[in-house]
């Protein structure tokens, strides 16, 4: 099955962006690791990153008709702001796991609110790039 991996704003800078918080792995490293693991299990990864809210909304809407079975979503800063992206996921009824590299609950208070967690199958946060891998294992177990 096809698994969509959606990355929100500033995640294109992974590896150089606040590495003490987000680690040294680049987005390409993370996507490559996920693609290899999914392929070994007989599934496919399609990764998409955008800094623009409407592009993420459009990508979620496109999942309606393109055979996407499941999504891993790191909404990044949109976690704490985007009703529009939340509504897109609710509209498309795409099952997804919310992923964060850092543990937002251990940071600034404004990061404790997520517009996604109550819609998500589950949430994985705080394990750096491994958060995505753990989320993928959970997704694979459900496909
Ligand atoms: C993040 C946490 C968010 O609070 C932050 O805005 C990000 C990344 C994470 O993966 O830890 O950009 O989603």
UniProtKB/TrEMBL annotation:
Its EC number is 4.2.1.10. It catalyses: 3-dehydroquinate = 3-dehydroshikimate + H2O. GO terms for biological process: amino acid biosynthetic process; aromatic amino acid family biosynthetic process; chorismate biosynthetic process; quinate catabolic process. This is 3-dehydroquinate dehydratase. It comes from Arenimonas caeni. GO terms for molecular function: 3-dehydroquinate dehydratase activity. Pfam families: DHquinase_II. Belongs to the type-II 3-dehydroquinase family. Substrate binds at residues 74, 80, 87, 101-102, 111. The record marks 17 as: Transition state stabilizer. Keywords: Amino-acid biosynthesis, Aromatic amino acid biosynthesis, Lyase. The active site is at residues 22, 100.
């Amino acid at each position: 099955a096809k698994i969509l991996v959606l990355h929100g704003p500033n995640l294109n800078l992974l590896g150089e962006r606040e590495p003490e918080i987000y680690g040294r792995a680049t987005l390409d490293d993370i996507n490559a690791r996920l693609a290899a693991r999914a392929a070994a299990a007989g599934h496919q990864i399609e990764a998409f990153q955008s800094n623009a809210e409407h592009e993420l909304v459009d990508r979620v809407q496109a999942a309606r008709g393109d055979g996407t079975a499941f999504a891993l979503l790191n909404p990044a800063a949109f976690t704490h702001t985007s009703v529009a992206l939340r509504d897109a996921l609710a509209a498309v009824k795409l099952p997804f796991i919310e992923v964060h590299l850092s543990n937002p609950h251990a940071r600034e208070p404004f990061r404790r609110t997520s517009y996604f967690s109550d819609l998500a199958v589950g949430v994985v946060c705080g394990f750096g790039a491994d958060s995505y891998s753990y989320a993928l294992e959970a997704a694979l177990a459900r496909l």
